[in-house]
Each structure stands twice: as C-alpha cells, then as structure tokens.
Amino acid sequence: MKKLTLMIAAMLICLSAAAQQSLQSRAAVKSPEINPDKTVTFRLVAPKAVKVQVTGDFLPAGPNGQQGIADLVETDGVWAYTTEKPLDPELYFYNFLVDGLKINDPNNVHMIRDVANVFNVFLIDGGRADLYKVNDVPHGTVARVWYDSPVVGFDRRLTIYTPPGYEQNPKAKYPVFYLFHGAGGDEEARIALGRTAQIMDNLIAQGKAKPMIVVMTNENMNQEAAAGESSFGFTQPSMGASSAARTIPQGVDFVKAFPDIQKYVEKNYRTINKKSSRAVGGLSMGGFYTVSVSKEYPDTFDYMGVFSAGLSLSQDPADKAKTEQQLAVQFSKNPKLYWIAIGRTDFLYDSTKSMRAYFDEKGYPYKYYESGDGHIWRNWRIYLTEYAPLLFQD
Length: 394
Known about the structure:
Elements: H1 2-27, E1 33-34, E2 40-45, E3 52-56, E4 68-71, E5 73-75, E6 78-82, E7 90-98, E8 101-103, E9 111-114, E10 117-124, E11 141-149, E12 154-162, E13 176-180, H2 189-192, H3 196-205, E14 213-216, H4 254-268, E15 278-283, H5 285-296, E16 303-307, H6 317-332, E17 337-343, H7 349-362, E18 367-371, H8 377-387
Helix pairs in contact: 4-5
C-alpha cells in the first residue's frame, strides 16, 4: 500500500511539473501582444526556421490585392515583428509563414474559419470595433436549428439569434431579419466572421437597434449544413461543388426554397408576421439573393440590404423583361427601405454602380453607403452596424 501511495505521489509530481513547464513555455512567448500605443507584436518560437513571416489584413495589401506580408526577425530562436504604425480599431485576421508554409499562431487560440481557411484573430478596441466585442450588456441567444425543407427534400440547418429578453418575455413578438452569406459561406459565416451576435447585443443595448430575431441561412442548396456539421461528417469546405452534397430536384434554387425557411421561423418563433416587420440583407452572393428573393416575393419584405453586390439584368429578353416587371411591382408597393452598400475598391463596384443607375432611371428610391476597401469582412461588419439600426423604426 505504501509503495502504491509513493507511485501515485510521484505521478502527481511529474504531472504537476509538466503542467508548470507547459504554462511557463507558453507564458514566455506572448503573441499577439497589443502594445499601449496600439502597435501589435507577433512572436513565434521556431529556432530551426530559415524565414518566418506574418500575413494578414492588418498589413497593406499587395499590388494585386493579395494580403500583405512582413518579415519577422529572429533572436535566440524567437522570431518577432512589431507593426510600424498603431492599428486602427478593428477585428483583424492573420497567419504565419514558416519557410513558406502557412501555419496558425500556436500562442493564440482564437481562430475563425473562412471557407477552407482558418485564421487567427485579434481585436483592437475603440470606435466601431467596440460593437464587435462581448461587452457587459444583456445578451441574446444563438441557436443552431434544423428545419424541414420540402422543396429540396431534406432537413437543413439555420443559425438563429434571438434578442436579449426573448426567453424572459414569453408573450412578446419580434420582427425578423433574414441575413444571407456570400459564396463559399454557410450558416456559420455571419455569426463567426460577421460578429452578428455581438453587434446586435451592443446595438440593442445602446438603443440604436430594435430587438429583433436574426435568421442566418445556408444558401448552398445541396448542403444540409456547414462542413463538419452534417451527416457527411468532417468534409473539406469548398467555394464550389463539394463532396458533401445532396441531390436536389432540377430547377430548385435558394429563391424557390426560401418560403420553407420563413414557414419554419414563423411557426417556431414569436414573430410579427407582416411585411413591415420583415427585413432581408446579404453580402456578395447573398446580396444578389437579397435582390432576387425580395422581388420574387414583393409582399414579404419592407427592408432590403444589398451589400457588395448589384443587379444583373439577363441578356435574354424574356428574363430581362421578367426582372424589370418584378422590380416595378416591388417598388409599386412602396418598401420602406432599399439600402445599397459597396467598398470603393470592390471588384463588384461597377455592378453596384449599374444597379444605382438603373434605379435612378426608374425612379426607385434607395439609400447608398460607400466605404473604403474592397470585398472583405471588414466592410460587411460595418454594413451590419449601419443597416440594422435602420430596421423596424417606423
């Protein structure tokens, strides 16, 4: 018995020593370190590396729009780089390049997936970026739910945000905002990359946005859910066709299947079921779907938000005439808001410009918001902070 006791004690000492060593080794290298002047220092222990670099959206973009790259300098096996200037308030993404191999920062557990890429993230607080933080305010609830979609023939998944107080006020009903992702995204994109829950919590707490339900969809109709969250298991995310695909009926697309989502939400959540209490918005591909869904169902939404997208009029005369007729019907019903936003260097800037010209020609009212930068999440978070406060105010 005494021998067994001694063995257990020895094991505990070894485990404690290993844990202390692990903590000490991690504590010796802090990365990223946000300095008092808002410069940021990145560090990586890589004594055998020949070259270490950092790449991310905090660096000036390259000549073709690719992410900037900066070299780290090695001292006693520890590589380091400090930004040349203080960084503006924002949520930033980055990775390391070790002898050309992209890796994540082993000293930063905070990561976000964007399609098939995983980035480390850090936040410089202040200004608009404070809306992206978890602050000491009442919080809403984020749920992943499955709904039956008869149009596509199988169950699919949604991410749904309910505002603070939803569970505590069982008689209260709320307006609904349907929020769409871009190409390569899924029902996780807007909640993770877009910081939707944090933004909505903070806007509602500040009295800048009405309490609302936000429904984040998956517009990839042959997917059950995000990669790794469906019956296909841990599949690789893809911008295009994926092995994690179900067969859907010919001719079915997101526009035709959207009523299945609306039906589920209005049956299972306490919603105000009228046009003036429904909004839709989306980025890139989701912006194009915002145009398509809202004109296809002109009595459904009073608020439309088109982020980094535009209007594509078909070259086919019949399709073009149909689109023009649908828009005429939609605007004849006097929607409360049609909001269009784009970055000045976005590759879809001309598409947005053409959309605005067409709306101007037809006399369709809209509000326009232009930001810097291009087709990036930094803009799409900004657009949510600008668009959400405009909803359901009448």
